[in-house]
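Bit of a strange request maybe. I'm writing a small parser for structure token strings and I need a real example to test against, not something I typed by hand. Could someone generate the tokens for this chain?
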Amino acid sequence: MNASKTFHVTTFGCQMNEHDSERMKGMLESLGYAEAGAQDGADLILFNTCSIREKADSKFIAYLQQAAALKRRNPGTVIGVGGCWAQSVKEDVFRQFPYVDVAFGPGQVHKLAEFLNSDSLTAQGFFEFEGFTGHLPMKREREFQGWVQISAGCNMKCSYCIVPATRGRQVDRPLDELVAEVRTMVDGGVIEVTLLGQNVNAYGRAVRGGERSSFAALLAELDAIDGLRRIRYTSPHPQDMKEDVVLAHAQLDSVCPHMHLPLQAGSSRVLKEMRRTYSRERFLDRVALIREHNPDIALTTDIIVGFPGETEADFQETLEVCEEVGFDGAFTFIYSPRRETEAAEFTDRFVSHEVAVDRMERLVEVVQRRAGERAQRFIGRTLDVLVEGYSRTDPSRLRGRSAHGKVVNFTGLAQPGEIVPVEITSATSQTLAGEMSLLARALA
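Reply from user aminoacidic:
Good idea to test on real output. This should exercise your parser:
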């Protein structure tokens, strides 16, 4: 019935959204739709939205308005909006955007198929969490890499974060179900998986339809799967970073020597206002424990500047932590108030945009300088690199990623999906460069 119909998906936000978009694409192709290269001319224009920052909202709405213009030219076009933004404005989405045909939250991706197969495509919204998307077909961007959602929602109450309002309280998938899914993925050619959750190392406490477990136990079960070469995950919470997970990095071959540990702020006072449930000292204690067992591990982080009430002294403490830790990289953000969050009410304490921009520039300088210094440890070493394609800046070279999560551009002959040894010859804060080892070239 839908053999001649096409769809186009635009994804905003985090890896969880990328995972859900892959499920949407797989589900649509199973219904007979074909993926279009652009919105123009597609029968179904679909957006998977993010609501973490105001900038994501604004960007999405501009895209949505473009889709509305396309629909005016072709009234038969169906416009769908999924994800966190849709969930956060569920009461108003059809009133504000009457050209939207279907809207659904993160726990209702499967309802898209039900809507498209219904007799009448009158506007409908689906927002109550019903289940995970793991059972849906998937169309992966790369056949050798896959996302795995291990949980949904979050029980933390960070004062700036909208996730609990859009994704609800934490619900975990049963361990045996996850192991079976990953084993099937590996049988299909996947050699690297990334485990996804709002707080992955709290996994196992809220299992739906199964026994309680732990994140460390899940890592061990997945490590035992033959053919799975790399396990990554995002994101953990410093409060729940226990020694069992730290030891998993040291003892399990497939768990990558890379950990993304969100700091958010280096001031204990600001962390308390953020309701992050740990102090500066606790964070540094976790870093010390991680590096005690994994000296070579790559640590990356998230940092917010300009949180309401942040003083220059508070910001200096953030810079001090960045200097002391020496992160291998960081995602840095200027605070953006989100509806339905406690911090959005701190209007009398908002930091001016000019001050926030100045702090951001100073933070980026410190992060990049320390990351560049940390990267020098790789020069002269041979790293196993998972080939992902050609270099974005030099098509005569290949691009891949080391187990540490570092992008590597290198010369050599290899195919996407291969893991090859690369001798590192230079390093910056962002990337490494090198050449395939002479032995690897000879074998090739």
